[in-house]
Amino acid sequence: MRIDETDRKILIELQRDASRSLDEIAKAVGSSKTPVWNRIRKLREAGVIGAQTVRLDADALGFEACFFVLIRTSEHEASWQRRFLEALRERPEVQEAHRLAGDIDYILKVRVRNARAYDAFYQALISEVRVHNVTALLSMEEIKSTTALPL
After folding, report:
1. How far, rounded to the nearest angstrom, does the alpha carbon of residue 110 sit from its chain's CA centroid?
2. What is the pTM of this model?
3. Containing domain of residue 19, as a range?
């Protein structure tokens, strides 16, 4: 799908706050409601816009500990990788998981209530899949967090 300047403006506004009314978004991009709604519909159909969710405040809900977990493995078979990915998908504590190039094989972003909850997560994970080395880094302060793309 070809995205023009008006589409970009709409996407920027949706990234700022998708809960705003269609009238507010149309006004912000300098258009009217129906053309903006049609563009949003086309962007959804093309897969440019995915599911809309709500951002929750983790601290307000008691999830005060954010760990970045670095995983090295000596296992690279497809069956191990399948079990590992299933284990990650089944754990709601894992907010992000990335396979990396370099010395570290995977990095996870894990959000839990406290260090004890992280230990329970860790123990459960290593009981399901074998890993060579795990390093957990506790985030002391979240400086910036966004899902917005630099359009």
Report:
1. 11
2. 0.89
3. 5-45
